Amino acid sequence: MLAVQRIPVPALIGLAPTALFVLVAIFAHWIAPHGYGEIVGDVWEPISATHWLGTDNLGRDLLSRMIFGARVTIFIAVLATALSFSLGAILGFTAAVVGGWLDTLMSRFVDLLMAIPTLIFALVVLSVLPSTVITLILVMGILDSTRVYRLSRAIAVDINVMDYVEAAKLRGEGEVWIIFREILPNALSPLISELGLRFINAILFLSALSFLGLGVQPPDADWGSMVKENKDGIVFGIGAALIPAAAIAMLAISVNLVADWVLNRTTSLKGGRG
Question: What beta strand segments (E) does 41-114 contain?
Fold first, then answer.
């Protein structure tokens, strides 16, 4: 009870919908009232007791589509974020610790990737490669890892000159020890905040790719592709496309509030130990 009282109101506002979305994604098969692609009514039926969010452009239950779409959206975003975070952080730490030609080569390669607009780069790559979920995760994770690399390297460069790191080097500790036992624990605060931002970016990036037709492919669907499927209804005053769009915005804002709270908490705990 005391732990709950210490959580600020903005964090609670973010935690509630975030937890709800995650639970819905996990238990989608048990929660959804209808099948994923089951036709249950006419096209774009209004909200009713039978269909709580109405139906979509093919007469499928929109609530069921939203529930299954949450699973696809969160699953892909989590895996892409994990890939970008782990790849970017490890390479950034390695470049800072090893230095020399390796640091120069890796940094220039990352600068080259970042010079190309990410969305355009992803569209070109995905138009050539097979349209699978694995390909989508790899493209999103690798392109987004460049941002994590820049942050991780900048943090590691500052930590690498600290006295406790120099002491570890004098003890004969290897580079792997220094990266994972000396630098990583002291870089967690900004990296945790970056983790939340990367997840939000993955959600928005995936939605943009799906809206443009190169993200999640039918019969699967995420929230971004659901916006694309129902966008024509806006002309006729049908709000079916606005529901997944609102879910994307709500998830992004909620995760951002949670990330800010975690960052403030880890920063204060670290300051207290000092």
Answer: none
Q: Where are the domains of the chain?
A: 54-273
Q: What are phi and psi of 171, to 5 degrees?
A: -75, -10
Distances (CA, A) of 168 to 164, 186, 188: 6, 14, 19
Could you give the angle at which helices 242-273 and 188-211 cross, rounded to 10 degrees?
170
Mean pLDDT by 10 residues, the chain (274 residues): 62 90 92 87 87 89 93 94 92 89 91 89 88 91 93 90 83 82 82 84 92 86 91 88 93 88 67 41
- C-alpha 94/C-alpha 153 separation (Å) is 8
Distant-in-sequence contacts of 213-220, Cβ < 8 A, 24+ apart = 214/122, 214/123, 214/126, 214/127, 214/131, 215/136, 216/72, 216/76, 216/133, 216/136, 217/131, 219/36, 219/37, 220/72, 220/133
Instruction: Supply the DSSP symbol for 216.
Output: S
What would the two tokens of residue 149 be? Answer: 């690399």
The CATH T-level fold of domain 54-273 is MetI-like fold (1.10.3720)
Please give the model's pTM, rounded to 2 decimal places: 0.87
Place of tokens 């929660």: 31
Whole-angstrom distance, CA of residue 149 vs CA of residue 18: 27
